Structure prediction request, 368 residues.
Amino acid sequence: MTVKPGSLANENFVRFLVKEYKNRKLSEDNIWIFLSFLAIRNSEEHQKLRKIIEEETDHFHPRPAIDYEEQKKNKLRRKIEIIFDRDEFIKETKKIYKGERKSKIGKDDLDFRTLRDKNFQSKYNEFVFDILRMDLKNDDNKYSFEELKSKIEKWNYEYFTIENIYDLLYYSTNVELNSEQIGFIKSFCMTNLNKVNFRTAYTQKGKGFLAKWLAIWLWYFFRKCKFEYPEDILLDMLSFDWMESNGYVGVGYLEEQLDRRKIERRILDNLKDGINAERILKNHIVLCKKYNLSSSFPYLKKAILNDAIGIDTRILALRAVSDFPKVKDFLHELLNTNNQDIFVETAKILLEPKFDSQRGEIGLGLVL
Prediction:
């Protein structure tokens, strides 16, 4: 029999439900579903109906309130434990075999129906379940627990830990790590620093861009965990950037770590050598403007005149050089450009108060 709560939720109907339950024609689940309906309505009348069920059956008393926030915290805490400990991952894997009473498990055994119980609650650790499901999705073999355990033991669990804790920290705001876990991350970062060249780790091909995951991890954890890297690595990181939240981070965080003169020298060296990634070029231009680095003029001039570079970057460079001394002639030349955006931006600059004394000389150039 299926119970459909609705307009029949009255005393006669409730007593009928109790009678059917006592005659074993209704299950506990049927009664709990009806009680859930009453809880949603939560009126005085519905509370009376609930009390009838409790008194007549001496059962179905209100379940203890579930602290969903605490549940969420415990779930996150357990996930972090598993991420940092292969043995804990294997323990949760074993629970799947035991719970399903199967000697071998394959991809077809790891679906939603296996994970959830009749109340749609997770029977097994969701993180472990999802990792195993992804690992076996293209594998037609079935594995005994010992076979799957052997497979897991061959994983590079250090990289597994770093990859998953990065994802967790990147997408969550309430993750807390203990000193041992932070120490693990620091050890990984310091050990792998010499495997990354931050000067070439970010590349651009057409409108697309790429970065090596190892570089992203080292860059992210340096800032997130406030690690200390050698000065030469930090200077190299001026040539690297990546996204966080709604956009690129930039290199402002490095200004707190490095001597300004050393930053300026590295900027000039990088501009001289050529910067192929436009995102990185933008970061350099921002610092050139901030530091009023007039010695960068030849390189920014080249960028402004380069039609292959995005117009936003070219205008950014134009705004930077407009603060440099002795740029009047160059700005005047730009009024002859065929690029409308560059022309309009140059005209705006020359009409600013700082160029008041030069307006008489350029006035004819602004007449269309």
